[in-house]
Amino acid sequence: MTDTTAVFDQNPEASFGDYVALLKPRVMSLVVFTALAGLVVAPVSVHPMVAFTAILFIAIGGGASGALNMWWDADIDSVMRRTQGRPVPSGRVAPGEALGLGLTLSGFAVVMLWLASNWVAAGLLAFTIFFYAVIYTMWLKRSTPQNIVIGGAAGALPPMIGWAVATGGVSVESVLMFALIFMWTPPHFWALALFMKDDYSNAGVPMLTVTHGRRATRVHILVYTLLLAPLALGIAATSIGGPVYLAASLLLNVAFIRGALRIWRRDESAAEADGYAVEKSFFKLSLYYLFLHFVALMAQSGLAAYGLGGW
Fold it and tell me: pTM to 2 decimals?
């Protein structure tokens, strides 16, 4: 990690938007959505005020981990085109400010979630922040091409936290929601790595495209997509699944496998010729894939509340 204080001294004072950007609002939105899904599909009803405050503190915890990530990764963020404009590498926010904000919000979110719900949910949130900020950001990201595979656990925990808010514990269903995101993360980010070209190699990040080559990355995307499909479909057989979810999952997995096959068949000359159109399309599809799976779970839960849509 390099010192960006000198850069900061040459730039104007940070705006409110810069501090919001530190919290990675796009990532935070995924955390909020999947945590809400875990809470909604849980078999225990939660008072609306408890649900609202719990999701709020989960969001703050997710944002806190984003701030810690930006503090530590300022050096490589300054090299990568995709991240050069972030508040710390651009010098709009001092590294110490990012660190202080991340630590303060982390402690606040965990304590308040404990008070608002239970210690299991708070413990899972604390572990999520620690895993993302320390295990993934400080260790895995720069040391192994399995960074995205193992590090994906941090992004996969929010539905378990939401479930724990409602039930006070962990179950097969919440573990399967975790597994769905965990297995989805590698093909999602490897597709991004394919069309980001030299960003990761320039930053010295051992992404699979850098360490094993782009052909191997295409193979890995297909393999993980094929492993993901039965897991996603298997959720239909649990207490949170049903015919509505199964139908949605079938359509989504057919499209996802088709996209992975198209990526697998491609070579670099074809990809460069059309500006990585297939890879970019698969990356966008991956966002819809995850979002619509959790929408289907919530729709199935809503129907079940009225005695409809079950097996």
Answer: 0.91
